[in-house]
Amino acid sequence: MKRLVEIRSYQLKSGTRQGFHEAMESAAIPLVRRAGMDVVAFGPSAHDPNAYFLVRAYKDLTDLQGQQGSFYGSEAWLQGPSEFLISRIEHCLNTVLWLSENSIQDMRASNVFAIEQAT
Q1: How many domains does the chain contain in total?
Q2: Sheet harboring 89-100: ordered strands across?
Q3: Residue 102 neighbours by CB under 8 Å, 6+ apart
Q4: Model confidence, pTM
Q5: Contact call for residues 53 and 7 (beta carbons, < 8 A)
Q6: Helix (H) or strand (E) holding 76
Q7: Could you tell me the CATH number of the domain that includes residue 53?
Q8: Which of 28, 58, 102, 104 could form a disulfide with 64 if both were Cys (CB 3.0 to 4.6 A apart)?
């Protein structure tokens, strides 16, 4: 079975990545998971000191749009870490692709931040 995977790549303002990561790890990712989204991987990108990524998996495009629409309009997000995180983003690029469950599990297993947050 294949699932739709969204890869969100952030270019952050210079010098903000550590604070961004701490807020993602402690506030945003727990909120996203409580909302029912499957966080596959997230963390600082190895190629650029101002780059960050978030990978989530969904059943299909309708599922992605529904879950994200509900989440990003929620009081928990709007009253929570949204302003802090958004203020540190220069720009963001989203890509979606279909992956097998095995590929998703491989991606999940190779990302230490996602593994630590899931336990």
Answers
A1: 1
A2: 38-44, 51-58, 2-12, 89-100
A3: none
A4: 0.90
A5: yes
A6: helix 75-78
A7: 3.30.70.100
A8: 58
